Amino acid sequence: MYYPKARQTLMSLAVASACAAFMPAHAQEVASTPGAAATSEQAAQEATSPSSPAGVQTVVVTGLRASLESSMNLKRNAQGFVDGIVAEDIGKFPDTNLAESLQRISGVSIDRSIGEGSKVTVRGVGPDFNLVLLNGRQMPTSSLGDRPGRGYDFANIASEGVSQLQVYKSARAETPTGGIGATINVLTARPLARPGLQATVGVKGVYDKSAENLPGDVKRGDKVTPEISGLYSNTFGDGKFGIALTGSYQERNLGYNQAAVSNGWKGPFRGDENNWGTIPAGTAGNRPQGSTLYQVPQNLNYNMSGIQRQRTNGQLTFQFAPTKALTTTLDYTYSENKIQTRRNDISAWFNFGPSTSTWTGGPIAGPLTYTEQIPTANSDIAMGAADFATKTQNKSLGFNTAWRVNSDIRLELDVHKSTAESKPDSPFGSSNTLGTASFSRGDTGVDFSKDFPVLSIAGADFARAPQQVTGSVFENGYVKSEIEQAQVHGSWKLLEASELKFGLASTDVNNRSAFSVQQRDTWGGATVPSDYPASLFHQESLRQYFDNIDGSDNPALFNTFYTFNFDQVRQAAAKASGLPNLYLPKTTYDTDQRTREKSKSLYLQFNTDWDTALPIHTSVGVRYEKTDVTSTALVPIATTISWVSQNEFPVAFGTPSFTTLTGKYHHVLPSFDADIELRSDMKGRFSYGETIGRPRYDQLTGGQVLDTLARVQGGTGRQGNPGLLPVKSKNIDLAYEWYYGKSSFVSLGHFRKSLENYAGQSQVVAQPFGLRTPVGGAYWNAAVGAGCVATDLTCIRNYILRNFNGRPGVTRGTDDATGNATGTIIGQPNDPIANFQITSYSNQKAARLRGLELNVQHMFGNSGFGVSANYTKVDSGLAYNNASIGEQFALVGMSDSANLVGIFENDKWNVRAAYNWRDKFLSSTFDGSGPNPNYVEAYGQLDLSIGYNISKNLSLQFEGINLTDEIKRIHGRTERNLLYVEQSGPRYMLAARYKF
């Protein structure tokens, strides 16, 4: 006796199950093999094309409720652990951003950038270890914000052309490697899957409130911006030919305001230490004592950024099915995301001199207040501006052919070439800063007792010390990732209840990351105030830009600052200095890192159904993966260290050179899935599988690269290791699912991951290139011998520049407005060799994590009301130890999360309110000063959409994002160790959509 369902392929089984589960107007869009491009669309095509079995009807998913029903059936009928989201209708995805859709799935959390979802963390595993596919093809990724990373930025993809998202949480042999948390497959429309004419056009107006709360010098564009999208799909020649074209263009103006300790926290120190930043006895309330750890801020910065974005997406697809057994698909996908940024800021830097402070209790003390004494009121009140732009383009050309050899054998070939490229889109580079300052800052303090850090400054006098340009930084970044991939998949039905799947693939990934810096380290003053007319600077009050953050109403806030037009002041500085090229980015790259990964893989997977008292479906498989790594890096050769201002020691570089290193690895990855039909409406699932996640590109890249700016204590740098092995994870999944209604279910899942070969980030002290530093050298010692305190850098600089001017390495400039000497002091052959903290990587870490997922979906009869909710709890013993000093390994991105979605739908109205919550999580183990934790505080956001159908063709839609105007906050070892707090604003959209 055999299990009857075994006479069909699993894909056909899923289609049939969906058809049975829905009313005639609805059907499931089935889960595909993520490694086989266009499989799910092909399955849908088989149900609707002339080659379809007799009696199968064309079925279409429409509406909010139908979308939830289809997602439920995707989960129910899939092999292994699969979740997904299905479009409400052709060209109409539930969310305007794919990452924000993904966060509705249990276990998926998102990182937000410029007010919208960008990257995803799945089950506590961060973006670098989640693989993203487009129609089953591995996609390249590029980002100037994270140049060497692998995390895919979903902000580059518009949702209008997407028909389905599939999230594969469990491992199986046929799934491509790279996704430890999950493999995410983005499916786009295929014309033969929907015979006949399908067409929509939509227009939308977007108002982002955050764009209004900005200074005039950074505001960008109009209050309301347009979006337009369209989809055309049609079939010809009795269903043998099909063409689909989707396109969208979106503009958005936005802004955000940040208060930040942007260079991190100095320390940590023990209360009984005598070191930089130690709090003098008798000057602190509740002074840290003994082993209590504490840190002091490097600086405090308030910045306001105005942003314009233009996003263009398009896909063109041709399909040809010359016979019932053969279908070919040719498609081209394009996206472009252009972002322009303007910023103004005000900041104060601390010199770690005499101070007063108050503290929380231990064992880790956080500052409530911290004030440094500057009795001469001659330090800088720094104000800066930025004006830069970037452009990211994604292109993918692919060909797929699926051949049904006979009733038992099916073969598929898929090839594609895809690129992702990010580069500057401005003559001023991909990032920049132009610094100005008034040298009139006296005693400077910060109140950290509330969410908003309150800066207070004594003695400020902009009339006595007008603004002048100080230092500047112009950066150019470039990232390009290219993938050429060929895949062959096959399936062979065996016996009555079994199927053998097999395949092989070749993947060639080339990643390039290049970068240059044009930096003028004249932070003590590059020119004089008289070079800049007062009309260039515009007085502003600060408080209004942070009015939504607790503590911003503190009357002690230093509330006056000046903004300016970046290019106007840049031109004035270039003219005044006579060095115009220093105020533009370089046309060559200082660093150029190139990594090539050539992988070959093959898999076998055997699926079978067991005719037992409780029907069981099993899948056992094995995948073999072999990868060769070649890494080439352009390494800048450091030549000298110069002392140019208080704590600024820029490193000079000579002619760079390339170095090449190699590595390789191979893995055998077994997998096993089983699901048991406990009864017709209940399922139990079990899965075991092994997966790998490849290291980040910065971890692989060989060559030692020093950062351009050192400090008194030395410098920093980084070096990769192309011999790194990928992270390997052994995964166990268990689940119980109860489908108690046509569109209602409850599921409870448990997962465990045992991870090894994590690349631990550590810092070692090195003395690269034998660089000499003036600190502790002959001139320095002479100044100390003459009475300067070793921590009084101003005294030491004045002594050296006034007494040794003209000696080797010493060049004195004019005195600044406060009477202190300016100039350059270069390390000499007999001076001490500088120490550098070099960050590198090795396979030295292991981790275990476990979690629970609870899903509930309930539709209230025929009332039109429904609710979907889920909660995920993730836990690991590898949490960051805040009481420990030095480099640590901890899992970043791991957090609990929850979603609650309520819907109402009838023939005229559709309403959806969605609340997403993510608990506090560790986002990094390094801040701007060294090995210190970064914790993103718990965040919840409410979104709302309301739609009205004027007719069967025309509908209106209102959407509101972040309706409760939430703020984002990140802190260090304690909540008082603020790293940054950000205020943005809600976003509102009004749209009209016409379906032909």
Automatic annotation (TrEMBL):
| UniProt record similarity statement | Belongs to the TonB-dependent receptor family.
Gene3D superfamilies, per this entry? TonB-dependent receptor, beta-barrel domain (2.40.170.20), TonB-dependent receptor, plug domain (2.170.130.10)
Q: Compositional bias (Low complexity) spans?
A: 36-49
Predominantly, its location class is: membrane
Instruction: Say which species the protein is native to.
Output: Massilia yuzhufengensis
Q: Which PANTHER family match?
A: PLUG DOMAIN-CONTAINING PROTEIN, TONB-DEPENDENT RECEPTOR-LIKE BETA-BARREL DOMAIN-CONTAINING PROTEIN
Keyword Membrane among record annotations: yes
Renumbered to this chain, region (Disordered) spans 33-54
* NCBIfam families for the chain: TonB-Xanth-Caul
| Segment forming the signal sequence | 1-27
Q: Please name the Pfam families in this protein's record.
A: Plug (PF07715), TonB_dep_Rec_b-barrel (PF00593)
User: Which residue ranges does the record assign to the TonB-dependent receptor plug domain?
Assistant: 76-182
Name of protein = TonB-dependent receptor
Q: Where is the TonB-dependent receptor-like beta-barrel domain?
A: 433-963
Instruction: Report the locations given in the UniProt record.
Output: Cell outer membrane
Q: Which UniProt keywords apply?
A: Cell outer membrane, Membrane, Receptor, Signal, TonB box
